[in-house]
């Protein structure tokens, strides 16, 4: 190895010693890891809709940014239908939730504003916040009073702009919910905005699968992000905002202006996925039963409090032990991954169980048996 890359190799070796080294592995085993909560990714109806779109000439690639030649009728049709679906003025379609969060936080909060964000919010929001000109304050997880007090302190110290409260409605590594009712009240009292990342709630929770913020969307001070690569089974992200903010993003958001537009074919797929969420409530009902079954099993057999959602952490603590347990389960044909810092806080390495319609009750029962055996085998 030459000296020019030796520093990188040393960093990787340090990660290996801490049991934090990552690598890519193929899809294999029973799915207890993906975010394909409603099993739409391989649903025949969704496949058929994409094939029909291909047959009517919808291209796979956009060929340019939305502001050049990349603005396809499928993008505009999706944005119009999504706006109606979520009950908002306008929607912008991005290539990923990461790009949408980056664009939102780096563009909309102004220099005189304050961003107050939950400490466990997604890395993509952190990236956007870091690029923002606004001041930012991290808040202890799900502590509504701390959000309020941070804004009050900012005002007392001369803050003159608007506060932006940033949370996930359902947290991706803990499966718990934000106190949205309290937070919208705080946003209203302080003449601020509430930004809700609905990535893990869209399609699963809320009226008609419209997310946990469904009762607040459409308000002028509420912005919601609905990713399309999880329960919707396709790819991209839908940013639901007042029309004036959508127009502002089109004009000022570098992540929107300077990116090739998302695939028009995927836009057609998202349109069909939204219709499926509307037409097939039985998917949500079945998922709810599976989630309850896992929660009951974890509580009765391990004393683990159920999260109440399709995301269920099993906290291990030690990085190396979490990896050993996960590897044992993978060897038994169960795709369960160890999640380690920095994705989660130090000392909270865990198994992240994701419950989807890609599994059945028998596979859940077997998973719980194997989990019990693996945790006993690797007690230390």
UniProtKB/TrEMBL annotation:
GO terms for molecular function: 8-amino-7-oxononanoate synthase activity; pyridoxal phosphate binding. Keywords: Pyridoxal phosphate, Transferase. This is 8-amino-7-oxononanoate synthase. It comes from the Bacteria. It comes from Rhizobium tropici. Its cofactor is pyridoxal 5'-phosphate. Residues 29-369 form the Aminotransferase class I/classII large domain. GO terms for biological process: biotin biosynthetic process. The keyword Ribosomal protein does not apply. It holds the Pfam family Aminotran_1_2.
